Every structure is written in structure tokens, then in C-alpha cells.
Amino acid sequence: xxxxxxxxxxxxxxxxxxxxxxxxxxxxxxxxxxxxxxxxxxxxxxxxxxxxxxxxxxxxxxxxxxxxxxxxxxxxxxxxxxxxxxxxxxxxxxxxxxxxxxxxxxxxxxxxxxxxxxxxxxxxxxxxxxxxxxxxxxxxxxxxxxxxxxxxxxxxxxxxxxxxxxxxxxxxxxxxxxxxxxxxxxxxxxxxxxxxxxxxxxxxxxxxxxxxxxxxxxxxxxxxxxxxxxxxxxxxxxxxxxxxxxxxxxxxxxxxxxxxxxxxxxxxxxxxxxxxxxxxxxxxxxxxxxxxxxxxxxxxxxxxxxxxxxxxxxxxxxxxxxxxxxxxxxxxxxxxxxxxxxxxxxxxxxxxxxxxxxxxxxxxxxxxxxxxxxxxxxxxxxxxxxxxxxxxxxxxxxxxxxxxxxxxxxxxxxxxxxxxxxxxxxxxxx
Length: 430
Known about the structure:
Helices cover 42% and strands 21% of the residues. The chain is an alpha+beta fold. Helix 10 (290-297) packs antiparallel against helix 11 (330-347).
């Protein structure tokens, strides 16, 4: 027990990383990983709030507020935060997604105390006014126009998720619907800040060249007086099991057709998730992957494709996007996908494919832990989204436990024809 904080646990991974987890009396979680191999540190603040926590009619507020957090506080005039970080030589950024929002700085070691003070100030003392709101609202509106309204890929992706999740808030976009962005009020933003930007809804992650005792002492001094808030439970209507295909067509500024297919897929903490990652590796990664050969190299239906596995707290979408050649149809590509998936459900994959996929995923895992920023990002993500930072280090054992039959079973369970949502983009002139 430390005055103002409790040591929750320590965790040593392979003798390489020694992580300490503390909880301040106000509920703030702190993860510390000292590493002196370079004279820098990464400081990240993760909040357990994303677009899935938004109310109907107020989509986009989590992302809008991310922008507002770079304005002024009671102690720091507008622009001073950014100029101070630039003076430190820091790299600064932030992001919002379905389950989380986070802010990070990568900074030379001499500036730890100043960064702690600035970030604690942002959590407690943001100044919100109409001028700031209108300025950032316009930025977000333009961002939406660029990334969604005027981007066929962005538009098709938004339609896919809205169609796949009519009940669950995963179905509305993190950037927000335009009508919602335009009507968000200053009172909405103030309520959002007071409700979700509280210490008991946050995780601090510090990785790099620092002394743990000093760092924790400064964090307690800067954050310890902040008051915990009552956190509302998100109104999450469970999405019913999908029993029939859902389909929509969009006419867009395209030169060739596009196909996006989404299959409901398990949360990242599910026992089936590693098998899905391995399945995706076999299907889509590399020149020898099954989809590359069937759609591009041998089949010559598509100019390219992508596939992604959803690392979400709850059920998400395994998403496959195909860019067709000008003289090919989305229906032809869809038939190829259905044929491959049906074959997988019966025949499964080979031991050689499993081994290759497992090795590539493990290599990628280690590559993602090379820098202080990467390690801090992974720890914060797993603590907030997965519920426990140690889940990061369970990935390799989970991959090793997957067998050929697991991959076949997961393919059969997830890639069922009735479990798919399909969005087709066609050229306006077709």
C-alpha cells in the first residue's frame, strides 16, 4: 500500500518486461513499465469510452471531444499545450474508436514531470466554449466529407456496419452521422467530459526511461485529488443472432464495382478469436493465400482485396472488401467467397497452412513490441478493451493451442452464408 495508491499486481514477462499495476484511491489505473534502452518514454492516457457509449442522436461526440481536448484549460491557454510538446521534441497524437479513446506523447526522458502535469490538467480543467466547439465541429464535418461522403470505401463501410448492427451501437460510425455532428451542443460536450473523462474511467500507461517510484509519486500528486464520477452503463442492446443474409446496393463514383462482406465474429477475448486470426492469415495474407489466388492471381476477378479481424470488446465483423476489375461483377466475387468458405467448413486447412499462419502471427506480435510507444499502446489497449493488460502476453500461447479442427470449426460457425451482410458498390453510369 502506497499513500494514495494501491499496488494491484506486478507481472514479469520472460524476464524482459516488468510491469506494475497501481490503482489510485479515486480509481485511476496506472501501468508502469520502466525500460532504459533509450532515453525516452511514451505516456498514454486511455479512456474507457468510444462511439459505442454514445446516445442515439449524439453519434460522433466521442471523436469530436478528442479534438476539443487539444484546446485550452484553466491553466494552459489555447495553443500552449501543442507548442510546449513541440518544444520538448515530442510526438503527440490521439485516436477514438468503438470501445476507447486515447492520447499519447513520445517524449525525451527529461520532461516526464511536465507531461504528467499537462495531462492531469487536461483531465480536470478543460475550458469549453462555443467558439471552440464551432471550430472543431467544422473540422470534423470536413473530415467526414473527405473520409465518408466523398470516399466510396468509407461510405460502403459505414453502410455495412449500420446494416449489420441495427440494434447495437457498433452500427453507428465513430466519426458520427452528419445530422448528429451538426446539432451537438456545448451542454452535450460538457456533460460528456464530466461523465467520462474521470479518473475511475481512465488508464495511464507509462513505458520507457523513468524511475517507477518517482513517476508514481508525481502521478499521485497530479491526479490523486481528482474525484471519481458515477459512470453510466452503456445501453447496449445485444445484437440478435443473424439468421439470414442482409444486402444493400449503393451507386457511387466508382470506375468498377466493389464488394464488402461482413460476418459476425467473436470478441477479442473469445476462445475462438485466435482461430479466426489464423483463419484470416490463411485466407488473405501473402501471395499464396487462398483469396489472393482465387480473386486476383488465378481468378483475375479483382485488382485487389483486403480482410480484417475485429479486435473489439464485443461481437464485431470479420470484414472482406474486394475491388473488382472493370469488366467483372461483385456477384461473381461473392460466389468465389462462398465457394471457398463452404469448402473450408468441410475440409478445413492443412497442418502446413496452420503452422505458417501461426509463425507469421507470432512474428508480428514480437515486432509490435519493439518501441516504447508500441508497448504502451498494446498494454493500454488490452487493459481497456480486453479487461486485463496481461492478455497481451497470452497471445502466443493462444495461437499455439489452436489446432486444425479449431480452424475448421470456426470457419463453419462464422462463415455461414446466413451470417453475412453484403454491400455492393456500383458505378453511377452502370
